Amino acid sequence: MTSTAAVTSVRDVSKTFGARKALDGVSLEVAPGEMVALIGPSGSGKSTLLRSITGLQSIDPGKGAIDVFGLNVQKNGRLTGQARDARRRIGMIFQQFNLVGRLSLFSNVMLGALGRLPGWRGVLGLWPMEDRRRAMAALDRVGVSDYAAQRANTLSGGQQQRGAIARAIVQGAQAILADEPVASLDPVSARKVMELLVELNRRDGLGVIVTLHQVDYALRYCDRVVALKAGKVVYDGPSTELDTKTLIDIYGPEFEDAFWETKS
Ligand SMILES: Nc1ncnc2c1ncn2[C@@H]1O[C@H](COP(=O)(O)OP(=O)(O)OP(=O)(O)O)[C@@H](O)[C@H]1O
């Protein structure tokens, strides 16, 4: 069942690496069913923010806090005991797909079910029939069921990324956090991956937060855009209102370089 709590509530979060503030007082609330693009120049803190939300990295001590579906993930610079439960509800998608290369695509997708199984069953590959069916249905849905038996590292980037989305479906994720999911793909595969994320958002009601280098993709696929610059939120609003002046504020006068295909 889809949760009614916010996908994430990020409150006054900072993250410092040495002398550099990767996040500087960031606050962000994402409601269930929203599809949000996270944009900003290289080094602006997009990945750091996603990693903090998923609890892959701790935030600075202090008053900053992060909740995911009502579970407190980070508080006073520490991951809480609820971080693992929160992470189970989130499907993570990465630029480099993060599939296990020597395993078949099917086995990779089954790994999404691991959180629900006793450890030994997963280790032995004794997947329950119901989970096997779900995995095949998920592969079919993302259009790569013909490749189920093929080793992941022999598949194209687009096929691997679709497999990663199928894994999130099998996991039963209530939200997808995708970090540059199309940065390593050709435009045709990239569009297909973005369309799948939109479908999961619209049809299944999953919250989606996706970091994108391509502003045109953010405008085309996401209703809401959040822009980071030097670790601060400099725009948070409808993609339709992201005008040239704001884009110049975010990216500088070379802002058109942030468009991948054509400026729409
Ligand atoms: N583990 C780390 N150790 C030291 N510095 C880091 C670490 N992770 C990130 N940073 C720094 O924090 C800042 C923000 O990095 P981050 O990867 O979040 O940016 P980004 O917006 O995702 O960039 P890109 O679009 O290039 O992926 C950068 O200056 C980066 O060098």
TrEMBL record:
Q: Which SMART domains match?
A: AAA
Please identify the protein, giving its name as recorded.
Answer: Phosphonate ABC transporter ATP-binding protein
Which one of the record's GO molecular function terms can you name? ATP binding
Instruction: Quote the PANTHER family the UniProt record gives.
Output: AMINO ACID IMPORT ATP-BINDING PROTEIN, PHOSPHONATES IMPORT ATP-BINDING PROTEIN PHNC
Membrane-spanning segments: none
Q: Which residues form the ABC transporter domain?
A: 8-255
* Gene3D superfamilies listed in its UniProt record: P-loop containing nucleotide triphosphate hydrolases
Q: Which SUPFAM superfamilies match?
A: P-loop containing nucleoside triphosphate hydrolases
Q: Which gene encodes it?
A: phnC
> Is Transport given among the entry's keywords?
yes
Q: Does the keyword Cell membrane apply?
A: yes
